[in-house]
Amino acid sequence: MNNGNKMRELCIEKVTLNIGVGKAGELLENAKTLLERLSGCKAVSTRARTRLPAFKIQKGEPIGAKATLRGAAAVEDFLKKAFEAKNKRVSATSIDRDGNFSFGIAEYIELPGAKYDPKIGIIGFDVSVTMRRRGGLRISKRKRGRTKMPSCQRISSEETSKYISERFGVLVE
């Protein structure tokens, strides 16, 4: 499909791990330590964007944690483990129109090599994968001379499903 053009190749820009706990405190600290153990990166708190009185959440209050993995080696190692936890299956509806995809893991102990920690308990998390092409994304992100992304540089959901099935042996259903 890329006809030998290196700039048309797909690659993984980043993998974001996210845990939403709903309130600050010990649960949030446990979520941060879990993400740091799983990813090897520093986890940061995520804050509420809006006020939700039904759940007693104020705007700006810490309600979750996230960690971002970058770099080909770290990303691929983690994704191999995450796909193993999901039995190498991903739903086709989890791939968006820009080629990014997300899936959830119900319990962190499903990951190969993860050990149960009684202090943390059982926590699930979300894995979001951001895809990009080797060339072309910079024009939509740069400060000077910013332009729209051309349609030939956009990634379709079919291209992403083909990439993850070839690269990781994942069945997209």
How would you describe the overall organization of this protein?
This protein has a single domain (12-172), classed as 50s Ribosomal Protein L5, Chain: A. It is built from 4 helices and 7 strands; from the N terminus they run βαββαβββααβ. The chain has helices at 26-39, 72-85, 138-141, 157-168; strands at 10-20, 44-47, 62-69, 89-90, 101-105, 125-133, 171-172. A 5-stranded antiparallel sheet has the order 2-3-1-6-5. Strands 4-7 form a two-stranded parallel sheet. The model has no long low-confidence stretch (mean pLDDT 91).
List keywords for this structure.
173 residues; alpha+beta; 50s Ribosomal Protein L5, Chain: A; five-stranded antiparallel sheet; two-stranded parallel ribbon; 4 helices; 7 strands; 25% helix
The CATH topology annotation reads as 50s Ribosomal Protein L5, Chain: A
Number of helices: 4
Note the gap between the termini.
22 Å
Total count of domains? 1
β-strand percent reads 15-25%
As laid out across the biggest beta sheet, the strand order is: 2-3-1-6-5
The sequence of SSEs as H and E is: EHEEHEEEHHE
In CATH terms, the superfamily is: Ribosomal protein L5
Secondary-structure blueprint of this entry?
Elements: E1 10-20, H1 26-39, E2 44-47, E3 62-69, H2 72-85, E4 89-90, E5 101-105, E6 125-133, H3 138-141, H4 157-168, E7 171-172
Parallel strand pairs: 4-7
Antiparallel strand pairs: 1-3, 1-6, 2-3, 5-6
Summed up, what is this model?
With 173 residues, the protein is of the alpha+beta class. 25% of the residues lie in helices and 24% in strands. The protein contains 4 helices and 7 strands, in the order E-H-E-E-H-E-E-E-H-H-E.
